[in-house]
């Protein structure tokens, strides 16, 4: 291992990095070393590389866990500003370690990073070596609460993981650290003893005193304007907190206060560092200086319609952004070419995408835009000539400004008025010039769900755009900072990695010749066919219907899919299936292999990116899954030693939010809300008992080791642990169902106790967070409130026995149990928020916009609203309902807002009034309190004819105030009869 550290040091020193030193106090990651935390701030350039022992007390395992240590070794690299080729430099460093990049499967897999305590975040990747995460690669965007300019790139190597993979060992103790000395021999005693200290022996009172002392000292150093010692004290303060946390000595309120205190100190340190460097005159210089723009080549005109190819070369995009971004580029390009008049009837658009490129190929682009006439408006005719018909100064000035003679001025009519004008012919611009003007804006307009900056000014996207290849037939249209010549990038491991493209029509063929498949549909077909064939060799299959989402993700993770079958020890099949499949799907993107009966087989399919040594990559992935399953087995057995009630005690140490308390507090609120909801329902005794017991254990599995490690198993592990603890099956099922649905389209609770708990969970979340001022804003929804509201409406729609529970009543019940006041306006906004989720859900189901808007007043009862929407969509196609709607619209249009219902039949003066009153009374008295729409429409259809007759024969707005008021009050009664059914105005 020491040789690897030396090689990395030499490699990065050879690329201009200062060889830094590890921090002389405990840090949880190299990011906290001032070489990173402080140096990424401000405009000065900085390149540094160094080893960093990273201390995480909560990862203490006494040296027993093969993959987890309280002190692990990172190798930290910071490049400021990011150089534009950091990925290529990084791959060069792996080669320097002796990793054969052509034999191994090295991939950049989306992983965003954030440290709220530091006020820092960035976008980037995990780097995988044959499925093993070996490096965190991040473009820093913010630190200390300040946006960074220039942007730095941080590369953090996990040295133990890398060496375990390279040396083929399964325990960190077996790493050869130096000739004749293993890692365990060098550090095993320290690992055990420090684990003992952090987990068992650290004195809590003393450590609390240290936390306070270091926090006070950091404050004193800030007041003395000394950011470096202040930062050191903040780090010591942070480590003391981590020790207390590992000892289980941090409560919810204390955690929130400590985080806020450390965050505030860290922000002040960052700001003071920036001030001090400015006072010193930025001794290292300013890396934000603008670069001169390159010369633009002369563009040649073309004579015939030609193909145009646009390829935007990017660093690996998040899978969710790949196809969406390509389609957005194609749409904007089409709009631009259409507006310029460069498309013909024969023009076609083909869109391609991979993680590293967005491609649009257009056939038949016209050589030039059509000529056009441009009208420049001058002064009005009345002001253009004097009484004798001579041009005025206004007209002479206009003609002079246009460079024409007065005799060439025409008269035009605009808006019924006469103006002078100059009509000039505008020669159509050549296609190359149109494209040269269009493409920069198209690239600058790229946007994703999360966007970042890099070293190209004016650009912001999900990951850096590194090059743009634009070819009109054989002619290149270059884009300043993104011009990499008439060439495209292929696999980074290829030689050469960049190859020429002769013309636009050749681009796709060139990519395929070099192992890149740009068509997602073809990649999907290859993945599906190869995965099936590999599984079949072992008597298995891949359930592609169940794995559809995973397959789609894999399609956009690779440019050349190469399926490889791996295996694991069959003993792991004794673990619950959900654990095995969660690890395969969520963590490793493996396709599970199943036998004829549907059960798991001890095999999986991984998909490498490009040709590689299959045996080597298989062995690497098998080692990764073995280590993950060993961890899972360890956590599972650890959890089984405790009862659900004992596990639940750990919820007190898990913070929900500062104002809303711990997860134990949230669990208690859910139980109380569930009891309130149950009081509205007709539950059988066994259902009520199951609900009560499940509510008492609500969310207990969030404190289990397994769910802390694999959060996606919440609910699944609650059911598993409840069953193994001997709880009633109805209780176990309710604990599982309270987490459903996890996403749109997911399964819904099938039992009433499970549905009540699930609804109570979401009501608590929505009411509490709206009260705490944490409602979603823009695209930010850190607590998943949109998902919670969608889940709530889905539950209330799917479980008929929950019909007595409305959204408003449920939120009001949840509000009563919150630890903070829930103002009426917050509660009302939460109701509107939930109604908007139902609205979107109904629209997504294909219902027309007017239909959905018409039922929104019923959103308080989602099942009733959805049923009414479906009924309305059908009724709108019938003549009888159309007549009823038209009649009611006449009523609604004439009755002023705010008119109270009420009338005296004794004031009726016309037979039509009495006839309508007779029918109205019969309809009103025959309807139930809350009729379904078909029921209302059937009964109320009798109103259509007398309403029409009423308006034909009766002067509603009579001059007599008493008659007018009586008639409006009568029509208001008709209005109020129909109003609770739906919003009739929306279907006018």
Brief summary:
By secondary structure, the chain is an alpha+beta fold. The longest helix has 28 residues, at 252-279.
Taking all Cα atoms into account, the compactness measure Rg is 35 Å
Distance between the termini: 76 Å
Average pLDDT confidence is: 94
Q: How would the global form be characterised?
A: globular
Structural class: alpha+beta
- Uncertain runs are none
Question: How many strand units?
Answer: 25
Tell me the major beta sheet.
Answer: 8 strands, mixed
Helix tally equals: 34
Strand composition percent: 15-25%
Helix content: 40-55%
Give the topology.
Elements: H1 2-13, E1 18-19, H2 34-37, E2 46-55, E3 71-80, H3 86-96, E4 106-110, E5 113-115, E6 120-129, E7 132-143, E8 146-158, H4 159-167, E9 176-178, E10 181-182, H5 183-201, H6 204-223, H7 227-246, H8 252-279, E11 306-314, H9 319-340, E12 343-354, E13 357-365, E14 372-380, H10 381-384, H11 393-402, E15 410-414, E16 417-426, H12 431-444, E17 465-472, E18 475-476, E19 487-489, E20 498-500, H13 507-513, H14 520-536, H15 548-555, E21 561-567, H16 577-587, E22 591-594, E23 600-609, H17 614-640, H18 644-648, E24 655-657, E25 661-662, H19 663-678, H20 685-696, H21 705-709, H22 716-724, H23 729-737, H24 752-771, H25 785-798, H26 807-816, H27 824-844, H28 849-855, H29 862-875, H30 879-894, H31 911-926, H32 933-940, H33 944-953, H34 961-978
Parallel strand pairs: 1-2
Antiparallel strand pairs: 2-3, 3-8, 4-6, 5-6, 6-7, 7-8, 9-10, 11-13, 11-17, 12-13, 14-16, 15-16, 17-18, 19-20, 21-23, 22-23, 24-25
Helix pairs in contact: 1-3, 6-7, 6-8, 7-8, 9-12, 14-15, 16-17, 19-20, 19-24, 20-23, 20-24, 22-23, 23-24, 24-25, 24-26, 24-27, 25-27, 25-29, 26-27, 28-29, 30-33, 30-34, 31-33, 31-34
